[in-house]
Amino acid sequence: MKKQVPLNKAKWLVEPGCVVLVTSGTMQKPNVMTFSWQTPVNSADPCLILLAISHLRYSYDLIRQNRQLVINVPGQELLEQVHFIGQVSGRKIDKFKETGLTPIPAKTVEPPLIKECAGHLECKVVEIFKMQTHDLLICKVVRAEAEPELFAGRWIPEKFRTLHYLGGNKYGVLERTTEARGTNNGHGNSLTRVCL
Amino acid sequence: MKKQVPLNKAKWLVEPGCVVLVTSGTMQKPNVMTFSWQTPVNSADPCLILLAISHLRYSYDLIRQNRQLVINVPGQELLEQVHFIGQVSGRKIDKFKETGLTPIPAKTVEPPLIKECAGHLECKVVEIFKMQTHDLLICKVVRAEAEPELFAGRWIPEKFRTLHYLGGNKYGVLERTTEARGTNNGHGNSLTRVCL
């Protein structure tokens, strides 16, 4: 059973740069998109994740309505669903129905979690920076949870394999950890916080 | 020998979410930082990469001076250098000297390339969005190059293993490709461009 992740550890669900499934809308009328253009932009107090989203997306229409979304982290076993969701528009089909993925209620926002994913970030959009083709959504994480056997303050690639988009129908699979011998700063901080 | 990558393919050097080494300053006085808070924000015409950078960073002082930087992509063999560079500030030490990495002149910008990296994006900062602790630098890629044996319009994980930051001194290693059976859209487009 998934357990809540402290908000100051939430960004580690997406820091490795994995493909995610972003849900929008409501439990009654949800949509889901495959996404790899995201990055943390603040570690904690608050934890902020940026999504760069095309103006044309149906999901963006839904996000504009309640300014809420959920970032769900799929593993390799969801490869076919991830790719399919990346190829079709929710304007035309019900992607949950087509893929068999299961929407379940989030605790703090209207869009659903995807039951089959190993971690979830429930988010509220707190700021939008406008660009020509894409907007930058600054998303405040309000609740996070993950499978404790797969996420111990960080993903464990030997147990949970994230997908990383290479192009076309190809994805890289993260399945091995390596450790630098150099000193660990002990705080679990992001590189972007440590190195000046 | 590295070969030029067309600008409409440049974003594939960073799309998988790998750790990068960002160089700033000049050939005479360069700095380098380890970075994982980046994402493409426009595929082509122009290719734009966003970096979320802390106000406190020495590299940001340098970037403010000429509004130029280079995104270099290291492989697993540079793990110790990547981690060390992420732990120390260029205000205090010469990170090139300490790590033995080799700065070589870029073609279009003042900051150097890192010879030991497999790919490079020469960038000019075209817009800055201000945030409380980090700023969002919108970087236009003006020239890209990569090792043709390792990058064939996409990285080949079986030949070139990118690093993905997990936290502390731990990194995930991307070393295997998987392919979705579903139809490829044939354009090599980003998921974020395809799925609405």
Structural description of this entry:
The structure is a homodimer of 196-residue chains. Chain A is globular. By secondary structure, chain A is mainly beta. Mean pLDDT of chain A is 93; it is low at 184-196. Chain A has one domain (3-195): Electron Transport, Fmn-binding Protein, Chain A (Pnp Oxidase, Chain A, Roll), CATH 2.30.110. Chain A contains four helices and twelve strands. Chain A has helices at 58-66, 79-85, 95-99, 191-194; strands at 3-4, 20-25, 30-35, 38-42, 48-54, 68-73, 103-104, 113-114, 119-129, 134-146, 162-167, 170-179. The N and C termini of chain A lie far apart (39 Å). In chain A, strands 1, 2, 3, 4, 5, 6, 9 and 10 form an eight-stranded antiparallel β-sheet that branches. A two-stranded antiparallel sheet of chain A has the order 7-8. A two-stranded antiparallel ribbon of chain A has the order 11-12. Strand 12 (170-179) of chain A pairs antiparallel with strand 12 (170-179) of chain B.
